[in-house]
Amino acid sequence: MEIKDFAYIVETEKTFDEAVVSVLKEVDKKGWALFNVYDVKERLAAKGFAQQPLKIIEICSGKYANNFLSKNKLTSLCMPCKINVLQENGKIIIAGMKPTMISQFFSEISIEEAKEVEKEVKEIVDNSK
Asked: Percent of the chain having pLDDT more than 70?
């Protein structure tokens, strides 16, 4: 398996903070819920470690989550969906986990259902760049 099989990744010309705000706005436009935003750089700095900027943004669509959980509660291991904004080698990257991965682990979730969720996650990522 390669990274492209697991993650949808785009590069943006926006600053790190602009990209984070853009993701948050797109999540809201889609009607998805924002669960949490983790500032990994800040948390690691508190422990004495230096890292480039990285924020993990946890999001959820109640419609899709309810559907998946109704079929197998262990799909919760893959929830909520995450979109990360990171700085790497001077570039700002927006990356989201591809929900189609869920159908590979849980046979109850069809690839078609997972593609529907993935389409929305990709739209959030694309519209954020």
From this structure: 100
